[in-house]
Amino acid sequence: MKSQSEPTSDVTPDVTSDVTSDVLLSVRDLRIAFDGVAAVRGLSFDVREREVLAVVGESGAGKSLTTRALLGMLPKGATTSGTVRLRGETDIAAQRGRRIALVPQDALSALSPVHPVGDQLAAAVRSVAGVSRKEARARAVSALDRVGIPDAVRKARAYPHEYSGGMRQRAVIAMATINEPDVVVADEPTTALDAELQEQVLRVLGEQREAVGAALVLVTHDLGVVREHADRVLVMYAGRQVEQGPTERVLARPRAPYTAGLLASLPPDAPESEPGARRRRLPSIPGSPPTPDALPPGCAFAPRCPLAEDHCHQEEPGSWTADAGHDVSCHRWDEVPYPATELFLEQPV
Amino acid sequence: MSDALLDVRDLVVRYGTVTAVDHVSFTVDAGETLALNGPSGCGKSSTVAAVLQLRRPEGGEVRFEGRELTTLAERELRPLRPRMQPVFQDPYGSLSPRHRIRDAVAEPLKVQGRWNPADGPARVAELLDRVGLDPAYGDRFPHELSGGQCQRAGIARALASEPRLLVLDEPVSALDPSIRAGVLNLLTDLQDELGLAYLFICHDRAVVRHFADRAIEMRAGRLVTA
Ligand SMILES: Nc1ncnc2c1ncn2[C@@H]1O[C@H](COP(=O)(O)OP(=O)(O)OP(=O)(O)O)[C@@H](O)[C@H]1O
Ligand code: SF4
Ligand SMILES: [Mg+2]
Prior knowledge:
The complex is a heterodimer. By secondary structure, chain A is an alpha/beta fold. Chain A contains eleven helices and eleven strands. Chain A has helices at residues 63-70, 107-110, 117-128, 133-146, 152-155, 165-177, 195-212, 223-229, 247-252, 257-264, 310-314, and strands at residues 23-34, 37-48, 52-57, 78-86, 100-103, 183-187, 215-219, 232-237, 240-246, 320-323, 326-328. In chain A, helix 4 (133-146) packs across helix 6 (165-177). The longest helix of chain A is centred in the middle third of the chain and has 18 residues, at 195-212. Chain A is globular, with a radius of gyration of 22 Å. Mean pLDDT of chain A is 88; it is low at 1-19. Chain B is α/β, with parallel strands linked by helices. Chain B is globular, with a radius of gyration of 17 Å. The mean pLDDT of chain B is 91. The chains are: A alpha/beta, B alpha/beta. Chain A binds chain B through residues 56, 58-59, 165, 193-197, 221, 223-224, 258, 261-262, 265-270, 272, 277-286, 288-289, 304, 348-349, and chain B through 39-40, 130-132, 146-149, 176-182, 184-186, 188-189, 192, 203-207, 209-213. Bound molecules: adenosine-5'-triphosphate (ATP), iron/sulfur cluster and magnesium ion (MG). Adenosine-5'-triphosphate (ATP) is lined by residues 34, 39, 57, 59-65, 75, 77, 291-292 of chain A.
């Protein structure tokens, strides 16, 4: 018989109480459903001043819906419950573009095709600040300049389609940060770009965030990006939190089998010449993620989990605190080995 | 003359006045994985299209199993095509949305005159099983499969042609993180077992390091020496 600690309540445990005053954005028991099918199922987390929170998970895990909820821009037909507070305010939509701004995956969707980029930035400035047209235009140009767009004066007069993919994404970052928001939400801002541009765009995003002192919520599926850019990480699976905590702690000692499996299945970062590093089978997570309309009973990861036991198939795990600020949702969190290489090495099919 | 499975020499691809591939040369041996990297727009896809003879190059040679392909007529290419098969990035893109998985995998056998009603269905089931898909999935349509399952079905379809070379264009980058390693393992197993050669396009350096025997890099249409 293994010992099991009691689940804490849905509300994030008070290990953070000493810094509660720092909390900018606070999400409690967020639920989002379409036609009775739950896509986000009770998510709670905080974003503190100037912190970078990464949100990782599979396609369909509910990452984008969560970011849209943060911005008060959920699609029609979505039923929601729970709360999202930005500095205590619940009317987020009213603060969009001022206190909170989005960098979407697809830069084109954030820009109007029929107006010059500089005009769009200037309009964003004038929507919050009572400045002259001239002043707004000057700010637009310097914002483009800051994100590394060459010849910003001329580029400000160009249309989005005249920008390359990487430049466009920079322009969107300029747009999101021009009013010095408290929070920037970036939903996979680089997946459409190639490796080299990805690094550049993430660097620019990081610099601008620093410059305006904003917090960043960064959705990504790249654990390398998490390691490099995030202070804390929230791991999602099938609409729920699997694990959240300080990046080093979660990556160094994941407590949920899903996180441990993801880390184990990354190709080793071995030097190029190391013999035998190649061609070894990788540890891998069997099966594939469920869709929201066909969730398994109990823990949604159970059908793929090498540690699943009867209990897991019956009861959804609550939330436990593994160590300060590090919460995990798994019945067997204190038995998950690390590294989990052995656990996820299967026989050839 | 090298006895490489694929020997590409001085390949040139032009679109009007733009030179997309500028005198690129490389070889791939049987059973080997060669990775081809480079930023978007550097000419990787044009190289792949010219290797597969989906687009005739403006210059150079593509020698496959010892035969020069660029001078062959389409009629002469036809029997060789099955032996070099592409697997694309978008797992749903390589399968027709209107065909059941079973029929998509059977099609190459039928087109190549190797379909036999007596054992064809069993061969399809065997191929699906080989890529780790329950043959029951044969009844489904692509949109009824997950991305990883669809990528496996695409590989099963490519295998039906009994290829020697698979051209893998970012085969895992569109897949969910939790299923990438499984598809890479499948490719590793298939190579060990069938001696397949891979021309592997991928921008994830760690994946390339793990998976490829050698890597070459393109920039603005040319190979750069690593
Ligand atoms: N407008 C909508 N109507 C109905 N269902 C939706 C809608 N938007 C999202 N969903 C469903 O909600 C679930 C979560 O979607 P979401 O876009 O948040 O996933 P995600 O984690 O961002 O995935 P990805 O990594 O693919 O972007 C999915 O199953 C999706 O099909
Ligand atoms: S609750 Fe059970 S099935 Fe779910 S991740 Fe933990 S051990 Fe695995
Ligand atoms: Mg998304």
